[in-house]
Amino acid sequence: MKAALALILFATCAFTQAAAQDQSAIAAAESTCGPKTVNFDAKADPIQHPTPQPDADKTMVYVVEDLGQCPDCGYAGTNFITDVSDAVVKVGMDGSWVGAGRGASYLFFSTEPGDHHLCINWQSHLRSRSRALAFANLSAEAGHTYYFRARLFPGHGDYSLDLDATNADEGKFLVASSAHSVSNPKK
């Protein structure tokens, strides 16, 4: 009996310690985003289509949101379409938000050369959706342009985000095929 009680106590302590380690790792990863309390007003502007080039001593980064529908996602035994085409996705770098996109759109920003950590986060009033995050690294060189593709995948009652670097040809195509996103932090 004492052995069983000791085993349960040991397992509980080990589980608690593992959960604490996971929480610190999660907090460290989330620190690449920006403050959780910051939200954006974002809209896709189909009229303006800026595509600036980087200054010689800077780097230009484009993030294209490739969002849509999941017509085959079943929910509670039904076949219903999970529409995420109007989702607002915040983009962060090195601990600060740089902007947000709405739906199938792109945003861009200039940064210093060097190693950077990118983050995207679904901005939603629903807790399950606002926990969707994705991360990427960037080793930026002066005078270069980099393209990232943000995708939101709805599933069976849950969602996941993906953030991947794309090659320049695909990046230019995605930007040309998308509306420009204009965003401002909410006050």
Please describe what this structure looks like:
The chain is an alpha+beta fold and 187 residues long. The chain has two domains: 1-30; 32-185, Domain of unknown function DUF5300 (Immunoglobulin-like, Sandwich), CATH 2.60.40.2890. Helix content is 22%, strand content 45%. The chain has three helices and 14 strands. It has helices spanning 2-30, 127-130, 168-176; strands at 40-45, 59-66, 69-70, 74-75, 78-79, 82-83, 88-93, 96-102, 105-111, 114-123, 133-140, 145-154, 159-166, 179-185. A six-stranded mixed sheet has the order 1-14-9-2-12-13, covered by helices on one side. Strands 8-7-10-11 form a four-stranded antiparallel sheet, with no helix packed on it. A hairpin with a 2-residue loop joins strand 4 and strand 5. The longest helix is centred in the first third of the chain and has 29 residues, at 2-30. The protein is globular. The N and C termini lie far apart (60 Å).
E-strand count? 14
| Apparent shape | globular
Write the CATH architecture name of the largest domain. Answer: Sandwich
Spatial gap, N to C terminus: 60 Å
Low-confidence region ranges: 9-18, 76-81
SSE string, helix = H, strand = E? Answer: HEEEEEEEEEEHEEEHE
Characterize the main sheet. Answer: 6 strands, mixed
- Helical proportion? 10-25%
CATH superfamily of the largest domain: Domain of unknown function DUF5300
What's the number of helices?
Answer: 3
Strand order of the largest sheet: 1-14-9-2-12-13
Topology-level CATH name of the largest domain = Immunoglobulin-like
Q: What is the number of independent domains?
A: 2
Question: What is the CATH top level name of the largest domain?
Answer: Mainly Beta
The average pLDDT score comes to 82
